[in-house]
Amino acid sequence: MSISTNSELPPGTMISGRTRGQQYMIQRVLGTGTNGTVYLVSALANGNLYALKMGAYNRTLQAEIKLLFSLHKHWKETGKNQVNRYLYDADDYEEDGLIIPFYVMKYVKGQTLSNFLRSKGSEHIGKAGLGVLEILRDLHEADWVFGDLKAEHVIITDEGQVELIDYGGASQAGRSLHQFTEWYDRKFWKAGSRTGDYAYDLFAFAVMCIKLFNEPGLQKVIVTQLPQIRSSADLVTLVDQTPRLKRYAPWLKRALRGEFDSTGEAYHAWKAVSGSGVLNRYGDNGDPVTRRLKNALIWSIIILGITLLIALFFTK
């Protein structure tokens, strides 16, 4: 029988896995929730930083670990797991007779989606959104649903990659979701059940976009609209009332109405409407080295042109 604790462990605490023997030193707390506490740790084996989650409830954490093992296997089979994207380690830690389960994931350093859009510009929602949909597509292909999708769970790394964090709300497809946020919940808007399927995540993605660009309007509907008459039609109206979502309005309405046949279809439709490719952290001007090369080429052309003009002038 496993027992758990809700107390936070101080920096410098050494976590030793009982079975696998891996050791980690706690650096600081990254976050605390109902399912446990997430720590930034350094691995003694290689010195790398990871995110270690220690569960408040064994059964809940074991469900997360099962999901991560499944994703790890799926990515390994598809050749996409070179950087341990999902799971690095899973074990138990013993402290004062208490057996505390934990798992270790890649540490994702970067900005939340909302902060990224504020700093880089709202036009980057196309590329960022495509990154989110790519991850959702892989999850759904592995028969899992993320479940608690929102901007706070989307991170844009310092390298410009899109990552999802906090898989505590994930569930196998076809099962009832146990962790969700009301604003993004399909059942809250009377648009479907709370059973996990690909359309549930796509619905939440659409609401996330609305909240990013028209949070006051969304909040007003939630506060003023009676629960018994609240519906996804209210969200469709908000899409039409949000100028910055005009380009994506047809896509968002399809997601809110559950009209996509698969996440793959939704991914390609978003890519087509946004004209997006890989997210570039330097924006449309390219990285600094590329910019310097472009500037050097421009000045070379200008100098060459001036030289030719002078040569023509003196040969007359």
From TrEMBL:
Tell me, which GO biological process terms does this entry list? signal transduction
Q: What is its EC number?
A: 2.7.11.1
Q: Name one GO molecular function term.
A: ATP binding
* Binding residues annotated for ATP, in chain numbering: K53
> Membrane-crossing residues?
296-314
Listed A to Z, the keywords are: ATP-binding, Kinase, Membrane, Nucleotide-binding, Serine/threonine-protein kinase, Transferase, Transmembrane, Transmembrane helix
Protein kinase domain spans which residues?
24-316
Q: Does the keyword Aminoacyl-tRNA synthetase apply?
A: no
Instruction: Name the chain's protein.
Output: Non-specific serine/threonine protein kinase
Organism for this UniProt entry: Paenibacillus nuruki
